[in-house]
Amino acid sequence: MIRQQISEQVRQLILAQRISAEIREVPESASLTYDLGLDSLQLASLIAAIKEKIADMEFTPWYVDSGRNGQDTVGGLVDYIAERVVRTPADTVADQS
User: Fold this and answer.
1) What is the pTM of this model?
2) Angle, helix 74-84 to helix 60-69, in steps of 10 degrees
């Protein structure tokens, strides 16, 4: 899975949280808690959805590091996932084309 696909899926999952009717776009620079207003329950729900639909991995290190530094951005979450996702053979073949 390539980063762009991960980014799109994460953004769709964020919008599915229905955090606000006013939010129609989710820029990668947006903070999940400050800009998008996710509370701890919504963030936990988002992480559960990501685990189910994108990558079943441990998100605690990302949450601790990004929360401590105030860097809980959409892009930071996407980067964290992209760096850890095991690439499938289909992705490797597609990249070589």
Assistant:
1) 0.79
2) 150
Q: What is the pLDDT along the chain (97 residues), one digit of tens a residue?
A: 699 999 999 999 998 876 665 667 889 999 998 888 888 899 999 999 999 999 899 999 998 888 776 689 999 999 999 999 865 545 444 444 4
Inter-residue contact 36 to 77 (CB < 8 Å): no
SS3 73: strand
Residues whose CB is less than 8 angstroms from the CB of residue 97 and which lie 6 or more positions away in sequence, other chains included: none
Residue with tokens 């207003």: 37
Both structure tokens of 10: 């994460």
